[in-house]
Fold this protein.
Amino acid sequence: MIQLIRGFKDILPEEIAVWQHIEKTARSLFADFGFKEIRLPILEHSELFKRSIGEDTDIVEKEMYTFSDGKRGMITLRPEATASVVRSYIQHKMYAKDPVQKLYTIGPMFRRERPQKGRYRQFYQIDAEVFGVNSPFIDAQIIFMLVTFFNRLSITDLETHINSLGCPECRPRFQKRLLGLITSVKSELCIDCEKRSTKNPLRVLDCKVPTCKKAMEDAPSILDFLCKDCDNHFEKVKALLDKRQVSFVVDKQLVRGLDYYTRTAFEIQTSLLGAQNAVAGGGRYDGLVKTLGGPAQPAIGFAIGFDRLVEIAGINKEDFISKPDIFIAALGEKCIDTAFEWVCTLNIKGVKCEMDFSGKSLKSLMKKADKLNAKHVLIVGEDELETRTVTLRNMSTKKQVSIETDSLVESIQEVLK
Ligand code: ATP
Ligand code: MG
């Protein structure tokens, strides 16, 4: 038997209701905050991710699914959504209509990572991006939106970590200082960090290897190196979050795994997921639109790990499983014919109604109704058709009512009101 690929998974019908509920919650909340949906292709030119995420990041170095597209060069299954949203913002000159655009997208991402709980090779993200706003108000607003989203899903075991990554003006001074520390503890760092130290020292702060974490414990804080503008920006974001009573911790180790971030960076962490503790991450990327060939427009966004969210959301799957309002137990060929007409009519009237076409016995049809968790069963036999009266049984109260077949649809709608 051919099995699915390691690190990939099926989302089965019994789980889908939770996914749909989360998605619906996101769509409704994001729309209230003025976001519009955008749907983007899953494949992009590899160059897009190399230029945006950065050549020396784990994602680009070792996690991308990249293929040759013949003469058209190399293409990649998107490992994240921001780069594609930016590409689209530039390609369609959205900035010309209005530089301020609030966009969200939901869909699969692909990274060739070691599969484990909460870490898949195809995973899903709910992604939101805002272009054209420099003000710290938007930083606070989207963090507030994110926290509100988790509240709506009754997820409480969360911690919001924030940091500032500075800008091209102030960050190099910090990098230089960090490099000093890295050089002095080099022997304690993992091989990856040794490489990172020359190309991208900030990334060493992000390493999950315990010895690296330990070695970087006393690392200087980037916050002590911020220029005046970055510092003011960060102070304002924190003050606004305080005012909205969004609790957060300032986390000087938080640097994020992608190169394009500037200023505010944030991550929502939970203790419910073990090692994979991040459920959402994001930040400002004021330079990226320009880097990718667009006008200099600031931007900020976040991505929520949909799969991890499903694992921690306090959602009772049972509450979301769709149950038929009516199951019609039709006994014999003639009754099946008539019941089929009723099912069709009820379905188009918005009644969840099902039947079985196999002509099985009443006993086995009742078993089937039980399995489907049908709220009511309508029993239709030859006698019932003859007398033009059928019996509708409420499966939880066991109460039965007689219904005239001539006004069947209306009577059922009345019962279900
Ligand atoms: P992590 O530190 O867990 O690797 P990340 O920093 O690589 O996360 P981002 O690129 O910020 O993750 O993506 C945003 C969110 O997407 C993460 O917070 C996480 O919830 C989710 N995510 C990232 N990679 C995976 C994966 N391989 N499988 C499932 N979810 C993932
Ligand atoms: Mg990662």
